From TrEMBL, chains A, B:
One of its GO terms (molecular function) is oxidoreductase activity, acting on the CH-CH group of donors, NAD or NADP as acceptor. The lineage of its organism: Bacteria, Pseudomonadati, Pseudomonadota, Alphaproteobacteria, Rhodobacterales. This is Enoyl reductase (ER) domain-containing protein. CDD domains: PGDH. It comes from the Bacteria. The keyword Transmembrane does not apply. Keywords: Oxidoreductase. Residues 37-332 form the Enoyl reductase (ER) domain. Residues 1-20 are annotated as: Disordered.
Length: 334, 334
């Protein structure tokens, strides 16, 4: 029987998750049931939405229970298939991989990948959930017009880096907010027109005003918190804020976020603040994937990855992503 | 020379305006300049937006300066006309009446009223700014669908009462939030399906949940503050909040409003929060006025007024409206 070191949830994190919230157990490799695939994990994805699942509070994603195998997106090779849709050797992507070297996946949730079209792990990044989120949040919710300024927080992250490049491709004016000078510099190299290191900027409202001399028309907010406030204070009349993520709240997840509220400013600017979840756009995934794949193959989309090695590294990779210590799409390579 | 007791701004209010912020001076009646009308004031309107003008802070409406004549909407009879558009005896409405018995109005900002079509003061209420605001905020920004629940704060006020009745006419499900049992009862009588007295309800979130068993699809927010929070916590997926006014903040107008922020809830529900200003819909006023006038003449729109008497009463009428002590559209009759 194959050894299968598996991460389970030991307890619900309070605030920022810690390594002690997870437990590594040597479990036997699972057996594929009817309609399932047994898959050898090649890549695991850690993403901000997973923080919300580690909570007893009601949320949009089904919660993760104590003692359960940690779940997340992954790419792997089919070992055994109980489905006519897949054969051993196929490379697939699915959203419900366990954090383990061998996992089972329901065949009807898996997507076959073509390793010749793009590196398979891009299905977890620029051609997958973060890329699709960037595409729809920017184009379908933010709806910038040509020449408008699009401010993006977590700008070098999995979603931000794609949003910034789509904004460049489409003729908008993307401006980056990121957590280090190196990230800001890289953002400039992929087409962001200006950038702010929020850790050293001092007065964020003034820093955004300098980086966005024509104001902010669309703000893709991956963070919430003080960056949201500072962006709102620079928002143009009829500006739009797309609430894509709240990773700045990861360390106080189950507490209310107390701070200044800006309803008068929203009124005066006739701003629109709108929440975004990718699933709402499922009917248009194929079209977005076509665009993203074409841009990638034409060399228009750079996809920077931050790769942790080995199943042991999964919780730490997740935590550093929540802390913004990753530089690019955070992956775990097995 | 005619006596003309005139209210001027004595100082900028801090928090809730007080009678001492205004000064009554006996000025001579003004003289109409080129293109102007001399008007005998019949009705003055006091409205929440005027609070924002009494501030040195930058705002959407041009500010009122210390020592200047207080300005607001009014209805009056033309005494002298320096414009071919109007004759003495015409009854007009304009947005820039002084708080004084005789005032001058630029002819190109005045609208002639037909006293046979509707009582002339309705041009300050259901057929004027509050009515138009209710119409566009509800139908063009909130955009409810048939059967959806529309929650309205300050529900018996100038704007709220019209919004609730439009919602009833259009087949939505309007629910009132108001500040007394009598107001709630009257709201029910004009077509609101349920009502909440926010001063006695206790837990507002629970009270809204009881009054809106199917959740809230559209919230017309005239108040901000705790009512906004409680409504947001009852908002359905894809719910919409239209920020029409922030009168609950009138007593701490120039301070930040500190409290819980709900970006995660906005994300999870994919809610939309959008600011509203009437002026943006100017191109469609004629169409809205046609609808509102037709409904009024068919007896479908009740227009409740709260009338203070005499020019001396103007500041007090303004203050009681900001405090929510009015019951219906607050007017001053001269």
């Amino acid at each position: 029987m194959t050894s299968n070191p598996t991460w389970t949830l030991k307890r619900f994190p309070t605030g920022m998750p810690a390594p002690e919230d997870f437990s590594l157990e040597d479990r036997p490799a699972p057996v594929a049931g009817p309609g399932e695939l047994l898959v050898r994990t090649l890549w695991l994805s850690v993403d901000p939405y997973m923080r919300a699942r580690l909570s007893p509070a009601k949320n949009y994603a089904a919660g993760q229970q104590i003692g359960e195998v940690m779940q997340g997106g992954g790419v792997g090779e089919v070992v055994t298939s109980n489905s006519p849709l897949f054969r051993p050797g196929d490379i697939i992507q699915a959203d419900d991989f366990g954090w383990q070297p061998y996992t089972t996946v329901a065949a009807d949730t898996a997507m076959r990948l073509d390793p010749d079209a793009a590196p398979v792990q891009t299905s977890l990044g620029c051609l997958g959930m973060p890329g699709l989120s960037a595409y729809f949040a920017l184009l379908n919710v933010g709806r910038p017009k040509a020449g408008e300024t699009v401010l993006i927080s977590a700008a070098s992250g999995a979603l931000g880096q794609i949003a910034g490049q789509i904004a460049r491709i489409k003729g908008f004016n993307p401006v980056a907010i990121a957590g280090s000078d190196a990230k800001v510099e890289w953002c400039r190299s992929i087409g962001y027109q200006a950038g702010i290191n929020h850790r050293t900027a001092g007065d964020l409202t003034a820093a955004i005003a300098r980086a966005c001399p024509d104001g902010v028309d669309v703000f893709l907010d991956n963070t919430a918190g003080p960056l949201h406030d500072a962006a709102l204070l620079n928002l143009n009349t009829f500006g739009r804020i797309v609430v894509v993520g709240t990773v700045a709240l990861a360390d106080r997840f189950d507490q209310p976020d107390i701070g200044p509220r800006f309803l008068r400013r929203i009124l005066v600017t006739r701003a629109r603040i709108e929440g975004f979840l990718l699933n709402d756009f499922e009917a248009h995934y194929a079209e977005a994937r076509r665009d993203l794949t074409a841009w990638y193959q034409q060399g228009l989309l750079e996809a920077r990855e931050d790769v942790a090695e080995g199943i042991e590294a999964a919780p730490q990779a997740f935590i550093r992503m929540l802390k913004g210590e990753n530089f690019g799409k955070q992956l775990v390579k097995l």
